[in-house]
Amino acid sequence: MTDLFGSDESTAPEPAKDAPLADRLRPKDLSEVVGQEHLTGPEGAIGRMVAAGRLSSIIFWGPPGTGKTTISRLLADAVGLRFEAISAVFSGVADLKKVFAAARDHARMGQKTLLFVDEIHRFNRAQQDGFLPYVEDGTVTLVGATTENPSFELNAALLSRAQVLILHRLNSHALEQLLDRAETLTERPLPLTPEARDALIASADGDGRFLLNQAETLYSVDIKTPLDPAGLSALLHRRVAVYDKDREGHYNLISALHKSLRGSDPQAALYYLARMLVAGEQPLYVLRRLVRFASEDIGLADPQALIQCLAAKDSYDFLGSPEGELAIVQACLYCATAPKSNAAYKAQKAAWKSAQDTGSLMPPQNILNAPTKLMKDIGYGKDYAYDHDVKDGFSGDNYWPEDMVPDTFYLPTDRGFEKRIAERIAWWGDLRKQRNAKE
Prior knowledge:
Layout lengths: L20 H4 L12 H4 L4 H8 L5 E4 L6 H12 L2 E6 L5 H16 L4 E6 L6 H5 L2 H5 L3 E7 L3 H4 L2 H4 L3 E4 L5 H15 L7 H10 L4 H13 L8 H7 L12 H15 L3 H13 L4 H16 L5 H16 L5 H13 L5 H16 L14 H5 L39 H22 L1
Parallel strand pairs: 1-4, 1-5, 2-3, 3-4
């Protein structure tokens, strides 16, 4: 896989006149790269490296079609390094050995090598470790490209020897610049109305390569009258959203959904829910996260939230897609608009810690069951106060181990149903104090 205006060849000859539009528009200088000025500008990391004439090893992290390959090639030219490119998808240990051997040969002749590794995260841990000695002794300056979070996909040892630079998804201004360049190069305006042009840019989802490929398709078709958005949609397809269910895009969106729900923003929550489901996320995974949210962030502030989420799960099981997805939407909106409390979540953490700290302390004998005569003889169940037989249905008895000071784990908020629970707990507390005072 190559990047915006990129190639997997170790050299970049002038593209032929019939080469793909994206290839013909490849920048010839870092100043021509669009959308990454935070890196390529005078104050950016790349701009500073080029100005100093010294290049450190780099990991480029960013979405597809944002210029990772192009910038790498231009960097080699800017600092006078030989450019060598490989792809982790198609290369193995034997290929790496050849690359490193060639780099050493060129180094002996005074020519250092910039080794560009596309999809570097696809190399396994052992293969990544194989880069280390050649990076450390200066045989190669490594520039890796990845669409995945380097923290998860790359060895810590490799990351410690490289600077991670983040490339941004191309915004509408940067994509507009690409279309302007395409029209200048071809000396033809795109056959689109202004509204359709905006729709074309939106359909690229920040991917410059995809946008130029779409523009090339438009140029290849005989279009007499400029297309409106409906005509454009009928002719071209949208870019499929970047979303790997077991990688960072997955975790980013579920995090955004969870935090939008916690922040009581039903509109944003519904948007992220839609992003996940439209991209192909398993509805049952989303439902599991909603059930967890109902317990963690709503709890007893609205006990119905958990019931709503479980009902949505049953509804989806019964109806399937797409009909059952409306029940997921209902559960999502219910959770977003419900009063929030993490009191149950905090109570669980505190209680679990206390249980671990106190070990196997025995409960008081009066609340132990006594199914045998021996157990009754040694005091199990003696003087147990049956709460239903006591005034107010509350005995105020002590239920804690003798060697443990009573603790407080659950502190209900004053929101939703928990406000009533707090009042009830306070009332029981007053009764307990009154009855203890009489004893």
